[in-house]
Amino acid sequence: MQRVLVSSLVAATPRWLPLADSILRRRRPRCSPLPMLLFDRSTWSKPRKVSRGISMASRKANKQGDYCDEGMLSHILWWKEKMERCRKPSSVQLTQRLVYSNILGLDTALRNGSLKDGTLNMEILQFKSKFPREVLLCRVGDFYEAIGFDACILVEHAGLNPFGGLRSDSIPKAGCPVVNLRQTLDDLTRCGYSVCIVEEVQGPIQARARKGRFISGHAHPGSPYVFGLAEVDHDVEFPDPMPVVGTSCLYISIQCSQYLSVVLNFAVYNIFCHLLVGTSRWGEFGEGGLLWGECSGKSFEWFDGSPIEELLCKVREIYGLDENTVFRNVTISLEGRPQPLYLGTATQIGVITTEGIPSLLKMVLPSNCGGLPSMYIRDLLLNPPSFDVAAAVQEACRLMGSITCSIPEFTCISAAKLVKLLESKEVNHIEFCRIKNVLDEIMLMRRNAELSAILNKLLVPASVATGLKVEADMLMNECSFISQRIAEVISLGVESDQAITSFEYIPKEFFNDMESSWKGRVKRIHAEEEFANVDIAAEALSAAVIEDFMPIISRVKSVMSSNGSPKGEICYAKEHEAVWFKGKRFTPSVWANTAGELQIKQLKPAIDSKGRKVGEEWFTTVKVEKALNRYHEACDNAKIKVLELLRELSSELQDKINILVFCSTVLIIAKALFGHVSEARRRGWMLPTISPLSQDCVVEESSSEMELVGLFPYWLDVNQGNAILNDVHMHSLFVLTGPNGGGKSSMLRSVCAAALLGICGLMVPSASAVIPHFDSIMLHMKAYDSPADGKSSFQIEMSEIRALVSRATARSLVLIDEICRGTETAKGTCIAGSIIERLDTVGCLGIISTHLHGIFDLPLSLSNTEFKAMGTEVIDGRINPTWRLMNGICRESLAFQTARREGMPDLIIRRAEELYLTMTANIKHTTSIVHHEPSNVSPSVNGLVKPDSLRNRLETLPGAFEPLQREVESTVTMICKKKLLDLYNKSSISEFVDVVCVAVGAREQPPPSTVGRSSIYVIIRSDNKLYVGQTDDLVGRLHAHRSKEGMQDATILYIVVPGKSVACQLETLLINQLPLKGFKLINKADGKHRNFGISRISEEAIATH
Questions:
Q1: 1052 by DSSP, 3-state: which?
Q2: Nearest to residue 110, comparing CAs of 100, 99, 101?
């Protein structure tokens, strides 16, 4: 027997409400301290009998026409609850016209409420019965319409107005135009609703015949509607992947963990199942873990049997999936893997965005590295990996920081997007090109010696993230095959045989609109017959237009009339997709068999697709109309063939979904880590040494050590000089004291962030570090009361600290800020002392900060605890904090100074000081204050990474560069070598630096080793002109250049040089000398700028090439 509590990780995110609401429905109140069977699989789909909520009118309607069977009653009640939550006045008025006798909520007595056979309402009811808990949008002409319950939801959550206003004699009805469908779906899914979309069968129909309709797809939170995307010429935006849904299960004497990666309805859902040690007091855990929530007061549902199977059954019910739908279950053991972060820990260091807390995610990655890479880093921090995975991540970061070759752009595609588009066969040519880019970038990394080593390391975390184990050789073979297959079918934009048709007398816009929706998508060789038919039909149309319209045009131009000049031209009627003659006053008053009269007689009024006359000025001929229909038919056939080829390729690649997901995940991780290394180097962070902890570690054994040299808060930039560096040598538990504002909380956050980053294999904010691979990192900061749960702040604090203490082992890091501050001082001091004793016995590492100085007077039995303090110093007779970690105890709180600084009235402060003197006058005590005198010696470590000198390890294959690129590279290298040698001989630079000219091709970017270093660069434009520049931010400068039109595929050559001054001199030298070598520059004027160094250098000073 197990009890499952499912709660959303992000409680404030409403789009998961239907999933949570359905899964987390309380069946009956808990009446026993032990789990009870409240939900039996054999009966869970059987609806409960409805006795309330259905009016007498509804029952009467149900008797007259039975539109609701027993199986729909539970769904009707579900919708009734949703209707009761409506708050907008317009939607509330609509709900008053609903009845609860059918799944649509239609009152058949109202206008347009008929549910007779053959009506649109009955057709919608049949569709709705298949997916009773989804909002149903039905295509009707140029609108998507919803009725009943669904109309109320559209008005409430999508901001739409009801059809027909708020008249009370008709059924609730609302809808959106076809062009606004995506926005409406986004609004609904953002609020947590799933949507079923019904489309009309397109094409001609007989008069008075009803259009056929079919369910074209569904939109769910995290899984958008993709029907028809294969036809569009733009990429589709997918929402962010679903957050982790925590499933906590209580067993008796069982502890394990599972990670369930579910490909559900073509979207990826991640469920982390954290099975805790069982207890009958299930509500006492508080915020005991990231995947655990306070049970009291929250909805839950009892299951019997396997919790995973029961949960998946519930998911099948919600999304209307087949009972035979198969899910891929990936189980990863927690053996050797740290525990997931506690919710309090994740929020207090900004892994989960929290107001007022510096975001660790924003410090770990550069600002332009968001989306999927940011989500990977977030998930990595929330669920720290095992030591082997962390070591692989760290080694990859180490290699990334030392490479000198250019790196790919790293095309990132979410697994949900790949799976859904391929399974639904809606991948368009743009997405196929992106998939090919993913595969090509993997192969590029494999072929490069430096990047190949990184790729091998990235396979380890990618295997954990996807649950797939792929060998490097197999990966290359699959990538090569799939990339080649895409290249065989998809047009990559370099073919010249798919230009839009163009004829002199037919508007270009017409051919562009007719052909741009299918040309340039697949290679012509696969649809040669269809393409040829279009060319023939277009030529025939041009001939017909010339023969039937041009004589009239010539006549119009030559005729002058006293009643006004005739007008006539060949125009494109965009709305009707036709080329017609448009004119007036062109008919001759006297027919004299002159030129053009025969063609005028052949003209007839143009009609639209419904046989109606378009207008008085639009004309066509039988021949033109026939040629136009033939051209339309040829274009339709070509478009059908192109879509057929795209969908065939999608079907073919469905067997390769696993390898595509794996490749995309590798690139997401690569982009995340490259971004992290670049940002961390800029901030002065370093890679720590991770020491594995023995899994057999027992209490009697000495705890491992953590060394953090030059530690600074992660939210400060050490390069800006505003960070205080601290050395933390942690061999045991610390009891930390210090004044208010002295840096205790900042120290705890800094240590927690550094330890977490370290055990994940990432760089840390310190000059050097040795970090044990902890089995858990637990941070408790401040606690607040919870009136909804009837708990005071001290109750919440005790609940959370109990969870930390009960889970702590000798391999844990426990950090508690201002322990027991929410209760009476004497007893709080004793509780705090007892907790410290307990953690000392456990032997964990950690920091307990406190203002309860009475702890030091208690007869505590401590063997593994040290006393530390945040230092103070006396300046002008006033005690001020130094924010440095010292040995000893600080009993000064600086409470009066802090209160005065925050604006407390002096009258209150003076009275408080009098009361303090009175209270302490009769007490004999000794006050010990740690004073730290300013040191004249500056810290020996400033947190900066001094990169090794660059070495050219890029092996260039013969003939790999174009002739111009090789010539530019050779000339630039020669000029720079001569200049640097000259500067060295003049002692202008301390050492001679090897000149390494590195090429960065199209869709590549410089490596992280260029961050913070001066460099000169030469851009080779597509017109063979050069641009010379210098910068300290090569990545940013290259991004700025490539953002300009025509520069996206430009090649760049760069050389890292020693210092800004040298870079300026070399820039000026190159600008002046390259034109003398026969190269064309676009920024010659910069060579005369006084700030660019020497503007005139004799040619003799430079050896000829």
A1: strand
A2: 99
Which uninterrupted H or E stretch holds 138?
A: strand 135-140
Distance between CA atoms of residues 1042 and 1050, nearest Å: 7
Question: Does the CA dihedral 399-400-404-410 come out positive or negative?
Answer: positive
Residue whose pair of structure tokens reads 């899984």 in the numeric block: 223
Which pair of tokens denotes residue 758? Answer: 């370290």
Tokens representing residue 901 in the block: 């600084």
Report the C-alpha gap between 160 and 149 in whole angstroms. 14
Strand partners, 1081: 1026
Which residue ranges does the chain devote to CATH 3.40.1170.10?
A: 70-219
**Whole-structure pTM value:** 0.75
Q: How many residues does the chain have?
A: 1105
Phi, psi of 18 (to 5 degrees): -60, -40
Cβ neighbours of residue 838 closer than 8 Å, sequence gap 6 or more: 805
Map residue 948 onto helix, strand or coil: coil
Inter-helix orientation angle 372-382/657-683, to 10°: 80
Reading phi first (left if > 0) and then psi (alpha if -120 to 50, else beta), residue 112 is in: left
Reported as type and span, the H/E element at residue 775 is: none
- Cα separation of 359 and 37, whole Å? 43
What does residue 540 show for φ and ψ, rounded to 5 degrees?
-65, -40
Look up residue 193 and give its two tokens.
């609703």
Q: Based on DSSP, count helices (H) and strands (E) in the chain, helices before strands.
A: 30, 30
Neighbours of 251 (CB within 10 A): 16
The residue type of 255 is Q
Q: Report pLDDT digits (tens) over 573-594.
A: 998 999 999 888 788 777 777 7
Helix (H, G, I), strand (E, B) or coil at 1038: helix
Q: Could you give the 3-state DSSP secondary structure of residue 541?
A: helix
Beta bridge partners of 275: 249, 256
Nearest alpha carbon to residue 126 among 113, 142, 110, 138: 138
Q: Which residues contact 809 (CB under 8 A, 6 or more apart)?
A: 697, 775, 776, 842, 844
CA distance 801 to 814: 10
CA distance 680 to 670: 15
Fold topology of 689-694+702-908: Rossmann fold (3.40.50)
Q: What is the pLDDT of residues 962-1015, one digit of tens each?
A: 788 888 999 999 999 888 888 888 877 777 778 889 988 888 888 888 887 889
Enter the CATH code of domain 251-490+650-681.
1.10.1420
Q: Is 241 helix (H, G, I), strand (E, B) or coil?
A: coil
Q: Report the C-alpha gap between 795 and 798 in whole angstroms.
A: 5
CB 132 within 8 A of CB 194: no
Q: Where do you find CATH 1.10.1420 in the chain?
A: 251-490+650-681
User: CA 294 to CA 286: how far, in whole Å?
Assistant: 5
Instruction: Give the C-alpha separation, 658 to 463, whole Å.
Output: 11
**Bridge partner residues of 737 (DSSP):** 869
Distances (CA, A) of 786 to 180, 394, 791, 796, 797: 43, 41, 5, 8, 11
Domain 70-219 fold is MutS, DNA mismatch repair protein, domain I (3.40.1170)
pLDDT grade, residue 497 (50/70/90)? confident
Distance of CA 399 to the CA centre of its chain: 26
